[in-house]
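User: Structure please.
Assistant: Input sequence and predicted structure:
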Amino acid sequence: MRALLVLVLAPLGGYSWSAGVSEDAAPVRGLGRDEIRYLALGDSFTAGTGNRPADAFPSRLASLWRAHDRQVTLENVAVNGYTTEDVQEHELPKVAPFRPTFVTLAVGANDYLRGWSADDYRSHVRVLFRGIIDAGVAPNRIVALPQPEWSLSPAAASLGDPRQLGADIVVFNTILRDEARAAGARYVDLYPLMHKQAEAKMFASDGLHPSARAHAEWAAALYEHVDP
């Protein structure tokens, strides 16, 4: 199963993303103009699987900040195939030593593929938010991001009914949103943009993960809605 997870789960275009961004995605202001120490946590969708590491959205976002005269230190510790338990075991210990001023968290697809329930996912996500905060990160400097619409990818065709997969992705994304809010963190709802990208077949060559162009569009949206 782990091999399957690694196999199946590891932008700039003319799509309008702003209309679908939730109120949670209002810019995070007032955090000063000091160095941005950005730590990216998660699975393949943060690691940029299917593309060059430089094309993953954390690298793209850091580049946008640097282009606007911000000093940025980025560490993307996301790993293809990781579940929430993997993030807890292997990525959370890296938070405190890095001393991040900004953290993104995007994880959940591999939990789903392992057959873990929505309740399991909720409890694991709570642990992650608590762990990040306990490591010294202010809640309003944590931004949670949804799973992309991978149910529409060619590689997902063998995993089940795309309509059911898509509905379950929305359930897991809703849990992440609710737990982020409960922890005092932010949730930037890129899902409407991600859905349009999937419909436009903006996938990497592996037929599952979003393309470099998709990642660039996520970064552009994040740049507009977070200001660390």
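The chain has a mean pLDDT of 88.
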